[in-house]
Amino acid sequence: MSETRSIFSGAGAPYADSDGALPQGPYASAGPVVFAPALRERILDVVITRGGTVESRHRVHAAVVDANGTLLEGARDPHTETWWRSCAKPFQVMPLVRSGGMERLGWGVSQLALACASHGGEPEHVAIAESMLAGIGLEEGDLACGAHEPLSLRGARLLRESGDRLTRLHNNCSGKHAAMLARAVLLGEPTSGYEQASHAVQRAALETVAVWAGMPPEQIGLAVDGCGVPVFSLPLANMALSYARLAHASTHGDEASRRILQAMTSHPFLVGGSDRFDTRLMEAVGSNVVCKVGAEGVHTFAIIDRGIGFALKVEDGSQRAQFVAVLAMLAEYDGLPSPLPESLREVAVRVVRNTRGEQVGEVFVSTAPLGAYGRA
Amino acid sequence: MSETRSIFSGAGAPYADSDGALPQGPYASAGPVVFAPALRERILDVVITRGGTVESRHRVHAAVVDANGTLLEGARDPHTETWWRSCAKPFQVMPLVRSGGMERLGWGVSQLALACASHGGEPEHVAIAESMLAGIGLEEGDLACGAHEPLSLRGARLLRESGDRLTRLHNNCSGKHAAMLARAVLLGEPTSGYEQASHAVQRAALETVAVWAGMPPEQIGLAVDGCGVPVFSLPLANMALSYARLAHASTHGDEASRRILQAMTSHPFLVGGSDRFDTRLMEAVGSNVVCKVGAEGVHTFAIIDRGIGFALKVEDGSQRAQFVAVLAMLAEYDGLPSPLPESLREVAVRVVRNTRGEQVGEVFVSTAPLGAYGRA
Lengths: 376, 376
What we know:
globular; six-stranded mixed sheet; disordered N terminus; alpha+beta; homodimer
């Protein structure tokens, strides 16, 4: 994809961090990306064995793409279109960052990390979301998302022990919503209805996703996400391209990209929570991998210094396969520390135990079909 | 499969209900079954939509077989081999029933239903399991299964409120284990080690499964189940045949089959629990459908008066797809009441809602691939 190679060819390209100039960043004029066939193919399915044969199998589709738009590798169908869910968050907050909104609000890395988060609803997350709203003169009731039980076990336990009520601030997307409300306030747009696809905040989010994904916005599917705002449907390869570009741009002078990735990788707890996979991964790997979970088995991540983006979808939406597949892909690209820390080994090498505590099977990446011999 | 047609051709065939004579029942000498190609094929995959397109897809393999061994219908691979898990319970208890053990123990339908159960660990289940053990001079500690949180929400809540400790009696298989211990006692075999594949109780269970499934026992795979006893691997078509034969035999003079199915269908609560699918189904359908869940997406069931058996496996092991697929198959064979009672409509017609309570998608049986348009 040579049309994107020239983006960073001139040193110190003029990216303005304020409303108006180059609002979508370095890829704003790069045009649609057409992928060549994958350089390599692999199987990334995750199987569960019992007694050495495969009892269940999760099919995994995946794409690995570099910032030039080269499809380095595909698993099953790397062009499968699916809903990007929470993996889009870095791009949904980007217009606020790029327009100088963070400075005008006095927000720093904590607020930015929470805006990109699928957080665990722990007190730390809730407090930041609440203060973000307070800073723009709003409150919980202005959030368009509904309440749901905190995603992290610690969040659920602390809420129960506190006797406090469950609020919309506990919604894993409350940081994203607070940032969307802030963007509406700064634009002078109504905050009521900010979740509608026709609102300026959501139109800018769609345009941002389209630019970084290398797609015309009209080719991106729209529906309603779990938290009530628009959700985007696009091919896995374009999701991977977005993260590859974000990584590459962050190390090549694009300040908005750098700040978003720096916030996420330096505050893994705020992006997830005490028992959340992305948190565990980013804490173990350090600042060179950004990783973002989405619902229904979608995941997008990048190795930052190499500008390589990854996107995968577990066809059946299962988390049981999702994290194992993420780790397998990162391992293939030398994106994991060696030896693997215990916190990740628990996820990467999963053992099936029965109620007597005996190991009766394993969960791992394999090509074996149902009923076939797995590994001893 | 004409070799099984003659089994019931002579009226009043001599089935002995005591040790020795025809210990495996009417199919003991029927020999291995070879299936002809399926008469019909269908897709039984379950998809989850968002905004009218398919977000996730669960592949479902299935077989529909009659008591003569005719493969009436297949979905994907009806000969897929997988672990039968808890669906084997009616056959694991059959040697006890057929040998006259129930009478010798003074056990009735409650004990028999619990022996066939994957129960919810509710007080009623625990009390029967405990009394079964007491009746043979044993106690919780003699169970080879481990303890696990009660499967039903009510069971978990009542245990928590009671302040009592979690025991092996709460294990969903405790009734099966108590019946296996009873069989060991009646045989004069050691109760210690009854869970080992080499124990007489487990050898008889394997032989029973083999006879009813129409397979040589050596072709049935063995491993360790979630509760510590042997688990059986066999093709879906043979699972379906077993249940078809069980249903047919129960209405054609085989007293052991009749008693097992009568216990299960007349005590749905004991076979499952207050919020368990099989219970909900059998309560709604009446006494003509027997239905048994297994872990990892396997399910076996039968329409009793027609002698039709069904087996399905959700390839990825998900319950989200499993119950929807069971209902779709039963509906196709007119095995469900019309109109569908609310308790089943909740399962059959599943709506995906976001945290705002808005409907954003559906869960239903469809041929559509990922990313394709589902239904509005």
